[in-house]
């Protein structure tokens, strides 16, 4: 679905899925956006728009997560946190923080690449949300970042550095330039975006937590401060909780706009577009008098056809579209290219086959933020007893429906689930206490084929059903999708086999579709 409302208005959110921690830049008549990708691969999605309302996914800036040894298994809430996207010296630049490694950077001459390999700008635990600034007035370069308390024991403050203009290294040890512990009522200050405007250094940064907080603005005549602050966007009497971090962009005609996220539980962090003006004292005013807008006049930009990031896939030649990401760095042989349509997934042998959350070879895409129906056709080609494949709704709890080869050689439809751990912790490698259970009685699947369906209703409540040749029949009880700690629920395709020797065969998925509204 797109955010189109009428020829003259748009409706929020403009990206109604988990495009977490968005940042945006304009180059000429084109707008580009990136977002957090955490532990999924490829990372750093790249979106394009001409009107700030209609967006398409044009690629990724990060082919694999580094260091590779850290991401051979899923680390759903780690990896790429809160990137910043900039254009300087005829190159695109993305900086991000890995909370366990430090601040990384990649750059490219064009948005579609080729992108450099990740370069570690500053090593350290808990260094997150970095944003660079090249000051055209002085030729100086700077970087600001926040802190992850879970890794460093530091929070609620922003640290500033001088940066070499080539962007590869910092020139000092850094200095705290905003200490929000000294601002009454402020907590969890994070996600800074750094700008130069009207003779001021500006930092736009949220505080108060992703579900309940507000967007702040800080300004100073000097980069290292002192800074004064204001709240420039908060929930007020709207239903947009927490309006959280994002980026400011100016159109060719001089209009200012702000893209930020809203936390929506299993749907993740959806993206809103706010108008941005300036008060008589030179402070930004976001939304409608500091409150998020649900509907608004469109930006003063040329009309564009409705568009949204792709979801459907026929998998031509066995290749999957850009919208899909693996749950860890992929290995050779997980898919097979061929001359027809259809995704041919290898039934990967795994000791963790009983817990999808621990598998690196699950192919995922974002859960849509509106009611919809997800369908895919599956053929289980593997002759291996115990081999299975299916369609999952994956989070800290998950449920999947699919096909399994029995010891007698027959294929049965299976529907299984695993509950959320009481601690909310990720699954252990052994999966102790979190093994799958059957959600329905196994049924025969003649010919090893089935059409799988998930109807996703309000609140991400999922109803599973299948068609093994005699029409769709419901399976199991309603399942409420759950997020990870920082990541929304995911749709997943998976093929797996028990441990053993040799190739375990494949499963073929065809005609993946997401349709709205949901049936029933």
From TrEMBL:
Which molecular-function annotations from GO does this UniProt entry contain?
A: hydrolase activity
Beta-xylosidase C-terminal Concanavalin A-like domain residues are 313-514
Residue spans of biased composition, Basic and acidic residues class: 433-443
Top-level taxonomic group: Bacteria
Which keywords describe this protein according to UniProt?
Glycosidase, Hydrolase
> Which residues does the annotated region (Disordered) include?
291-324, 420-450
Instruction: Name the family the entry cites.
Output: Belongs to the glycosyl hydrolase 43 family.
In Swiss-Prot or TrEMBL terms, this protein is called: Glycoside hydrolase 43 family protein
Q: Which organism is it from?
A: Streptomyces pimonensis
